Amino acid sequence: MKEKQRLELKGWKSTWIHVGVDKHRKERVKQWNILKTLYDIKEEIPVALDIGCGAFGGMSLAVNAKKWILLDPLMNEYRKMYKSNKPHRYINAFGESMPLDKDSVDVVFSTNTLDHTDRPVLCLKEIYRVMKPGGYFYLWTSCRTKEHLDVKHPHMFKLKTLSKWLKDIGFEIVNEDKVTPTDKRWNTHYLTYMGVARK
Length: 199
Prior knowledge:
Blueprint: H1 3-19, H2 21-35, E1 45-51, E2 65-72, H3 75-81, E3 89-92, E4 105-111, H4 120-130, E5 131-143, H5 159-169, E6 172-179, E7 191-198
Parallel strand pairs: 1-2, 1-4, 2-3, 4-5
Antiparallel strand pairs: 5-7, 6-7
């Protein structure tokens, strides 16, 4: 286990697991209400994937899907901490190398995950690979400045860079926005990119 995964797990054990799933659900519902202002999927999603979902299931707590795939490199540890009774598919894997078939997922969520990865562009390419043509990708990630980088958050993103990466990979940008530290919609210390892209 890498140092940043040890720190992430420590954070969950010391804080988030004690906050509880109900508090986490409220945060994900709030986040989804912001994201769907960019593009709202009103019908039930056939297959949804959340990358870096954490112990409680991330966006599966807020978004309706017939089938959920929850992927996190700490999933085996999270399942020891919190046992959900939901019939989801739980996968212990990194976003850069997902054990999923090409063109197999309708909608992908990556919320507060991309800035934790080792290779963010490779992660985006993997997302594109597993998505079905016409599928949607919801991205929410912090754009930290140099002084705010740490072991768990090793990347500096610029808004324009994220848009360019998505387009270069083959995504069509449906809509994008940003959340600032003064934005009343969400409590954040950093500039945050949010966008919706289509394959």
